[in-house]
Amino acid sequence: MLASYIRLYTRDAKRDASVELLRIYACIMVVLAHIQVSYTIGEGQVDNVVLAIKCLIADNVPIFFTILGFYFFINVQDDDRLDLIPSVFLKKLKGFAVRIYIPTIIVTLICSIAWDYIYNNPDHVFHGELLTEYIFKQNPQDMVGQFWYIVEYIKILVFFPFLALICVNKRSYNTIRRIYMIIIFVVIALNDYCYLTQYESFVDISKYIPNTNFLFVFVGYEVYLFYKSERYSNKAKTIIGLLMFIVGFVLRFGLTYVSFSIYGVGNSDHFMVMQCAPSYICSGGLLLLFVQLFKGRKSGILQLLGEMTLYVFMIHGIFLRVFGSQGDLIRQSLNNGNVTGVYSIIYYFLYGGLLIVVSLVLGVAIREIYGLVRYACMRFYKGMNNGREVNGNN
């Protein structure tokens, strides 16, 4: 029973290592996204190496949303199982609260207490606004600004019963869902086109799409169906996944290069945001590629690291502030501060590696202490119930 709460207590591998590897990759990309350097080297010039890395980094959070869709509807796959939606929904809410939301509150509380120590402020007061902004206003800031993903996760989770109604592997359901996906993708692609051509008015996505992140979830679900399909060989699926990723990457790289060439730095980052067509292509392609290349493999270490990505994701915002000067020092020591080409790779490896390692160490400590507390609460609850049963029998 203790092994269910203290992850380091066991090495049993229950999850497919393929998705855990992709989760680890996405987490690394999230950290690198917060320390990335400019891909411009003077007026009208682009560093191709740095831009290529930036294109890879841009797929960070989209991958997490796509992985969510890959697993999200497994328990309510067929139309004769839709009656399970209420019970599955409640189970997902409970799992989210215990495994994700409470840990984010714990980390936010730690940041609120340690704020002055982290920023070298001698007052040492409790900065409760960091906590209240996140919990009551769903507006995470500063060291927990990356929790916007958790807020979006909540929105998707709330809509689970409605999303599950159209994410069923039956012809009629698939037709409805895929028509909607095409409409969403076309609207997003039109918005990309409007941005590139600088039309006076962009397409207002909000009029057509309740939440652009839903499309990532749908893409993840479609990858799951394609992965399980027997119509195509494993080789064909692997090639399709690789081609999707290459197409998405080339589109992102090329459109950013063209945009910069035309408009300059101020208008060149649209194709690095999540709400652009290449993000959906790349994240879907990477998911399909990983599950095909590494499917069926089990690894306790990879599963542990995959579970710890949540804590690295939560905590790295703290160490971005703590080790900011070290990051500057690393940057200045490389090619006199001109972090371009191969120097950017060294910078990401050194500074990104530092942030990931220290976040992982603190994350393990918080995760295991939280596990012990949960275990103690479970034992206390069981003891209370057993006592009531004995008294009732007497």
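the 2nd protein, sequnce then structure:
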Amino acid sequence: MGKRKLICILVVSCFMMLLLNGCNGATDGATETGKTAEGKLTVKIGSWNDIGSGTAEENEFTTLNKGDVIYDTSFGVITIKSVDDHKVVLNVDGAMVEPNSDGTINLRKDPITKITLNAGESIRLASQTMDAGVHMEISFE
């Protein structure tokens, strides 16, 4: 009886491990860890405050992996949720919005949480702040 009980415990343990760890197969088209996608993600960032604007900086990412952080400041964090050769999906954690057509910022608009860029597309973002902030353009080629 003790051997049968041990075998049952092992089978149930293996099943639970597969259930908890093995069901992570859905990746929304994301690259697997260690693999990279072709393409170039460009992030142009400028800052501003009551004194004026700061110098803009440009960062290019040519090695794109799920989980990579492309922007991380007190205004927010932007990470790669998924990527393939034709599109990139970004998670946005912070108060970032698309500016209005005249460049103003809607302070009441819900912040963006997810961005999908197909190859050749870009998006403009701005921090949802009044006294100082950032503006950026993210493009995927």
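Residues 18-34 have pLDDT under 50 and may be disordered. The chain is about 15% helix and 40% strand.
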